[in-house]
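Lab meeting notes turned into a lecture example. A postdoc, R.K., suggested we walk through two folding results consecutively so the class can see how the record format repeats. The first protein's sequence and structure tokens come next.
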Amino acid sequence: MHFLFTDFAATFRVDEPFWLPFPHYSGSMLRGVLGWALGEVACERKNEGGCASACRSPGSCTYGMLYEDPPVPPGLENTRIGKNPPKRMILLVPELGRGDFARRDFFTCGLRVLGRLGADDEARIRMAFERIGEMEVGKSGGRVRVEHFRRVGPMNQRTCIPRFDPPPRFATITFVTPAWIERTEERDDGKKVKHLQEKPSILELFNAFSSRLTSVCTLFGEYAAVGDQDRYERIKERLEGRPEEIAVESELRPLRWNRDADARGQTHKLKGVLGEVRLEGDLGPLADYLYLAQYAHVGRQAAFGLGRVQVTFGASGGDPDLRPAGIDA
């Protein structure tokens, strides 16, 4: 179970002040201005007026590669992965809780591209970030310029399963950006409704983490039917039969807000949870999923930066920072 990724980071200087109505969710603004800039430098049909609703060259257009659904391998079209494939982009948004940016302020944001990336796409992404200064940002006509843009680490880094020695018995999962994790319930009238997970069980956490990782590894790396799927089934069976073996303590707060898609005149309702979840028990089988989720995010709308997690592991209550060995990044 692994996938490839390439990280970029851009440091911006604020030339004209602006504010964000929802400081915990800046991904919408960043995604919008980056999409405009990519359309300017990478759209293969710009001279033809662009693409009306969806990219018509997703196989070669950098904009389509990041913003449209990726191609799905034959045989998976009618599966969960085929019907709702993860986007190749993940925004790494700046610090939370900050809504006002004054002139001469600096902030840094990042972009993670899943799957194999070519040199031409990297060059277009770099040019797009440099063009962001031509567009207003925020709700008050702000302006920014790129002070520094860089690739973080090599291209096409490969994640691998960490090896912990000794196996962790404690873990703290911090949701750095709102995680849109839901559970589905069936009402008495047979209608299915979805609820935001505010106090997830260990099985619900595992389902959320494994669902995202299965999709990402299948499309942008490798997920083996023999080995990876077998391990998933064993873990799920254990958690369904003996959930009490892992204690879960949650301190999560729900957030709900609207995202305005100005270009299309639409408003979308979004939600997620922020905070921490602490686990105690035999976490050895789960450690792989928890660790890799730090690269893949968890839940819905990861392309906007939602579901970013940080995980710390410990072998005992007094050792909260156990590091995995053998990471090939």
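The second example is placed directly after the first for contrast:
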Amino acid sequence: MKKLAIIALSCAASLGAFAFPSFDPFADATASGGTSYSPTSNLSVQTNAAGEGWYAMATAATGSPVAIAGGSLTAPTNLPSSTGNMVQLVNQLGPGARFNIPVTSSNTLFYSAIIQLQTITSLAVAKSDTHGGGAFNMGFNNTQTVGQSGQPTGYSSPLYFGSTNGGYIIGIGRGTSGTGRFWETNTTTPHQAGETVFVVAMYQFVAGVSNDIAALWVNPDPSSFGAGTAPTPTVIVDGVNNVSPDPDVNGGSIQSFIFGNRNTTTPDVMYVDELRLGRTWADVTPSTNAVVVIPTLSISTVDPNTVQLTWRGDASGFSLQGTSQILSSGTPWATVPGTPTTSGTNLIQTDTLSGMKFYRLIK
């Protein structure tokens, strides 16, 4: 279920339209102006069908980069079928890929993906008793730096993997502290190499100091997909059930999602498919039993200083935002002044330009 957007040029200024939640099936997007996601190509040079791009990070690392692999992983019941290819991560210190998202410092953010740890020979051991061990290779991040040479820091809700009893378990932390990793309890019947698993992770901002919440769902009940509220997590770090030594999100905001080939203790070979990023449980678990409307934002010229933005009227819950820059963490998105009006089956809204401006629909 692809999120669509249009990028337009008008009024002697560049106008971009983006939507959030985001979805990347790692499928050929050339028909929509994106890239091909060809097997063996670097993830960091790809752009999806919505015009949302991946950016290089850890560029100074000399190992294998995060890359596209051919084929796809089987989606769980009630989730839309997988399409296109998938991402391959390996246990080397190599270049990774960053996907920038709206800067967020309140409420919740979720991500979901279908994963398969193909080989776990070198995977670090999970240490449930000390809330440590294991290793992570994906999660939210606190910057939008393009072409970052070093390995990023400032992760939130990183997804951990740790070997145990001939298999592996999955965990989550609020950050990356060596004693803030909380694990599944299925240590006697762990996941096995080659098993396909559906995971959902959440980061929730909570007022106060060092009390934000991280949560993990592993193979959640398919009947919960698309629901207005999330089911009970498999693992939760909330200061009551599990007390984390990690501070609240570093820098005060989440700005991107990262895949990284970080070191030799992560899964030897791992595949990830159907990445979804959003603000609600329903955003990242779209049910095949639900009707979801993803609006396309189009732009037209009214006069040299005014543009008209149009989107579907039956796409509920979206608001229009604009910004003068999309790569500067210091330039926030802001709600476009005015109220959309109805025109046939669409909603329309005008805005006055004073230079370059980018637009997005968000909920």
